[in-house]
Design goal:
The chain is mainly α. It contains 18 helices and four strands. The chain is about 65% helix and about 5% strand. The two termini are about 50 Å apart.
Length: about 400
């Protein structure tokens, strides 16, 4: 496909980002059975990226055999349905997607007509509260917590955005969200001083943003997320309730809110919303992890374990999935499996995440009876000898 240009001014996403978003949407559950809507959307998006506008006639001739504009209403009816589904998609399963694709709404005054080529030509923009601005794009770094390095890069990019544009709300909120995720990995390290520093900086940014975005649900939801990560459940309640009052649908699709519900005693509601969250994102490994985390806080360890096992089958290897299964297997005293998951985790997560995980595991194991600790130690040694034997055999074949 010939693309008009990948150099786009201001906050308009380039073609590659739009195409990534289109693929994400075409695979979404909402559009799974909507074959003609998917053809319609693909057609008009590609034409827009090529610098061409779409009309009822151009769409009909391209997609409907024997199309006659004055006799066939399929294009108009599909556009109405597609506009509605796009809005619903970005309210629910696509609420965290970095790029927005919309078909413009018709004029409110029904006596007016949209200019030729405007009614069916899609518009593209970055999610205003996502980790994207100018030529800096973090994309899905925050959603994939398989790498603390990705979080570090995200925070660095947010800082650069804010240096160029101190008023950029998306970068400010993204920065705080990244810090909240970083706290998760640092909480069990020996550098406890960092936690207070991060939390204080995050609180300062939220306070500044509050003056300009007090009516946006995400501001309050991230405030609740920060309190949650600092184990201040009593302080998390008010901001989460404020977020809920501003946008119930968005807040109920925000994973930290679901974890808050599970930890606050509303386990059934948390699990129901987490199940809905997962169903809207099947195929996404992080969605399985989010559901499993809620299940764990709700006291459903077997359910969490089963969900994570499914994730490995459906999504392939994921450091974050192996991380959760490692701890679950330790708690279940299934030591052989725990060691296997730890090996995978060590390959897929970066060193900071692995060190934090090992610190947490050590603290857990120290609480066990001597007999259990000895059993795990012997199994670990056996696995290490096996790995060394395999490594030596592979080296000998190279020679």
């Amino acid at each position: 496909m010939k693309v008009a240009s990948d150099v786009v001014p201001d906050n308009v996403p380039p073609a590659r980002d739009v195409l990534e978003q289109l693929e994400r949407m075409l695979g979404a559950r909402r559009f799974k059975a909507a074959a003609f809507q998917k053809k319609f959307l693909t057609h008009v998006v590609h034409r827009a990226l090529e610098g061409q506008k779409s009309t009822e006639d151009s769409i009909g001739r391209a997609l409907i055999p024997g199309f006659k504009k004055d006799e066939d209403t399929k294009v108009r009816v599909t556009a109405i349905t597609l506009r509605r589904n796009l809005r619903k998609y970005f309210e629910r399963e696509g609420s965290d997607d970095p790029v927005r694709i919309f078909i413009p709404d018709p004029p409110e005054d029904r006596s007016l007509r949209a200019p030729e080529g405007e009614a069916y030509t899609p518009k593209f923009s970055y999610h205003p509260f996502q980790a994207v601005s100018f030529k800096f794009k973090v994309g899905q770094a925050l959603r994939s917590q398989d790498s603390v390095g990705a979080l570090s890069r995200a925070i660095h990019n947010f800082s650069e955005v804010l240096e160029l544009s101190p008023e950029h709300l998306g970068a400010a909120l993204g920065m705080v969200e990244a810090w909240c995720s970083a706290i998760y990995w640092l909480e069990n390290s020996d550098e406890y001083g960092w936690l207070d520093k991060i939390a204080n900086e995050a609180a300062k940014v939220l306070y500044k943003v509050k003056e300009r975005a007090s009516k946006h649900w995400k501001l309050h939801a991230i405030h609740g997320f920060l309190c949650l990560e600092m184990d201040a459940l009593d302080l998390a309640k008010a901001p989460f309730e404020q977020a809920f009052s501003l946008s119930r649908a968005s807040t109920e699709s925000y994973p930290p809110y679901l974890r808050f519900l599970a930890r606050s005693g509303e386990r059934e509601r948390a699990l129901r919303l987490a199940q809905q969250y997962l169903e809207e994102r099947l195929g996404n490994a992080n969605a399985y992890v989010e559901y499993a985390d809620v299940a764990l806080w709700a006291g459903q360890m077997e359910e969490a374990s089963k969900t994570l096992e499914i994730a490995l089958k459906v999504c392939g290897e994921s450091g974050l999935v192996h991380h959760r299964l490692f701890f679950i297997r330790l708690l279940q005293r299934r030591f052989d499996e725990a060691i296997v998951h730890h090996d995978w985790m060590a390959q897929l997560l970066d060193s900071v995440a692995c060190e934090s995980t090992n610190d947490s595991a050590r603290r857990l194991i120290e609480t066990w009876p001597e007999e259990e600790r000895q059993t795990l130690h012997e199994l670990a040694l056996r696995h290490e000898r096996r790995r060394q034997a395999i490594s030596s055999a592979l080296e000998s074949t190279k020679e």
